[in-house]
Amino acid sequence: MMLMTPDAWVRAANPWCGWLRFVLLPMMLVPMWFGQPMAAMMLMMAWMMVPRLFRKPISDTAWMTRAQLGMRIWRSRPMDDPRPLLMWCLILLSLMRAADTAGGHRLTATLLYAAAYAATHLIFLARTVVVYERRRDGDDQEAPADPTEDADVEEGETTDGVS
Questions:
Q1: What is each CA distance from 145 to 49, 61, 84, 120, in whole angstroms?
Q2: Whole-number Å distance between alpha carbons of 141 and 96
Q3: pTM of the entire structure?
Q4: Is 84 a residue whose pLDDT tops 90?
Q5: Residue 11: which of 68, 54, 69 has the closest Cα?
Q6: CB atoms within 10 A of CB 29
Q7: Which string of b and e fits 124-160 if b means at least 16 CB within 10 Å?
């Protein structure tokens, strides 16, 4: 997501895209378990390409859409608050430990680290929803321009589509 164009960011805000990307990362543990790192790399490439498969969200009513747009706002800010960055590090650490234990065929540890990934990632996404809603409601004074302006996302519409 670091080198995503503004259009790719908006496409990544499609709720189907967001949930698919959320699931694809821990799915890389399956090939790691079976000793197929190349298959895990293919899943990582799919994870990076998924935003290009979806169209822009029609509205910001879906939770995952707000989370992805909030992540865009969070990433565009200076890093004066270390808590979100710490949470992101915990997400990556849990996923890396899960990959390590999957390679060692330790099922319980792999499942625990995968659960830690899911929990910390969902907490982080919930926080980015708050960031987005504060920006949308005008409570956030230091945020950059509204990321939905590029997206043609209108509040109040209810359908989210997949192309």
A1: 26, 20, 20, 28
A2: 36
A3: 0.77
A4: no
A5: 54
A6: 22
A7: bbebbbebbeebbeeebeebeeebbeebebeeeeeeb
